[in-house]
Amino acid sequence: MTTVVLALLAWLALYYLACQIWPYTACGRCNGGKHTSPTGKAWRNCSRCGGTGKKRRLLARKP
Questions:
Q1: Residue 57 contacts residue 19 (beta carbons within 8 Å)
Q2: How far apart are CA 30 and CA 56, in angstroms?
Q3: Is the CA virtual torsion 25, 57, 46, 51 positive or negative?
Q4: How far is it, in rounded angstroms, from Cα 34 to Cα 53?
Q5: Is 49 exposed, middle or buried (0-12, 13-18, 19+ CB in 10 A)?
Q6: Reported pTM
Q7: Which of 3, 19, 34, 40 has its Cα between 20 and 30 A from that of 63?
Q8: Running DSSP on this structure, what letter comes out for residue 32?
Q9: pLDDT band at 33 (very low <50, low <70, confident <90, very high)
Q10: Where is average pLDDT lowest: 6-15, 27-36, 42-51?
């Protein structure tokens, strides 16, 4: 039981450190910032990320 708790705490510490080093992750909705039409000739900015293709991680500090 204590091994599981220690492993979970170690994973959380590493995740927190990774969030401080790399605060952004890829947007899950658009994978790069732009939605394309079915024909591929037109595009529009993603409504979730605003066309940047990046999303802030859960534990990342605000700039």
A1: yes
A2: 14
A3: negative
A4: 8
A5: buried
A6: 0.65
A7: 34
A8: S
A9: low
A10: 27-36
Burial zone of 54 (CB within 10 Å; 0-12 exposed, 13-18 middle, 19+ buried): middle
Residue listed under structure tokens 């993603």: 46
46, 8 Cβ separation under 8 angstroms: no
Burial group, residue 30, by CB count within 10 angstroms (0-12, 13-18, 19+): buried
Output the six-digit token pair for 54.
Answer: 């990046």
Write b or e for each residue in 35-44: b if 16 or more Cβ atoms lie within 10 A of its Cβ, otherwise e: eeeeeeeeee
Question: Which tokens is 61 given?
Answer: 């500090």
